[in-house]
Design brief:
The chain is built from 8 helices and 7 strands. By secondary structure, the protein is an alpha/beta fold. The chain has one domain: Rossmann fold, CATH 3.40.50. Strand 6 and strand 7 form a beta hairpin. Helix 6 packs antiparallel against helix 7.
């Protein structure tokens, strides 16, 4: 564990952290996304050295606790938000996990990691910082390493007005499913996330072409792209897993 320096806030400005941790697993397609990522990480198991993973945007540790169950991984869990980081440190007590309070824009261990992973975190970095974000992800990876991104992708937009409508279209699907399954607390969190996105507070979701261009411009090659859902709608965006090679 690395002690935090100056207090920093991101997600905790607009999301109740305790509520988030309690209900986020019920988010539509979340468990399918996580299972897909975990299976990919399991496929990397070898008889040699451990696979070194940098999980950035670790949040409250929902994904981190699943990574801790894989004995072939050596995980560094990086979190920027001080409140999330404090929660993460209390929640994760495993010698295979090193918790670090830091920023993906500046934190690096040159060419150290076999995998850089983010789940519902990539879009917490502003569009204007995308070039630095992707460059630093690449900087942390060894040659031949991979970036795994599990996240939410919007339908295509061009203008600010279209972006707002894309956010509404996507989040409406998630809220609708949450309400149908009587996950009322999750529905409220999704509405809070929608508001933060529309108001450009801390949620900067990309559409497919924008995200893919950012990654490819940063020198990454697309390995795998998998839409987890919704699979019956093509115009509302969805939850995806992307795997890129360095």
């Amino acid at each position: 564990m690395v002690n935090p320096g100056k207090p920093t806030r991101e997600m905790s400005r607009y999301i109740d952290i305790d509520e988030y941790h309690a209900v986020e697993r019920t988010h539509a397609f979340y468990e399918d996304m996580l299972a897909y990522i975990i299976n990919d990480l399991k496929s990397m198991e070898t008889q040699g050295e451990k696979i070194r993973v940098l999980e950035w945007g670790a949040g409250t540790g929902l994904v981190t606790e699943e990574l801790a169950k894989l004995p072939h991984l050596d995980v560094t869990a990086l979190e920027y938000d001080s409140e999330c980081y404090e929660f993460l440190c209390k929640h994760i007590d495993d010698n295979s996990i090193t918790c670090v309070h830091g920023d993906i824009l500046t934190y690096y261990e040159e060419n150290k990691f076999d995998v850089v992973l983010s789940v519902f975190a990539h879009d917490h970095v502003h569009y204007e910082k995308a070039t630095g974000q992707v460059a630093n992800i690449r900087r942390n990876l060894r040659d031949g390493g991979r970036y795994i991104m599990g996240g939410e992708i919007l339908p295509k937009y061009e203008t600010p007005e279209e972006r707002a409508q894309s956010l509404i279209s996507y989040h409406s699907i998630i809220v609708e499913q949450a309400l149908a399954e009587q996950h009322f607390r999750l529905a409220q969190l999704e509405i809070d996330a929608l508001e933060s996105g529309v108001k450009m507070i801390g949620d900067f979701k990309r559409h497919e072409a924008l995200f893919e261009n950012e990654m490819e411009s940063g020198g990454f090659s697309l390995n795998t792209k998998k839409k987890m859902g919704p699979l019956d709608k093509s115009d509302v965006g969805g939850v995806y897993v992307y795997i890129y090679d360095r």
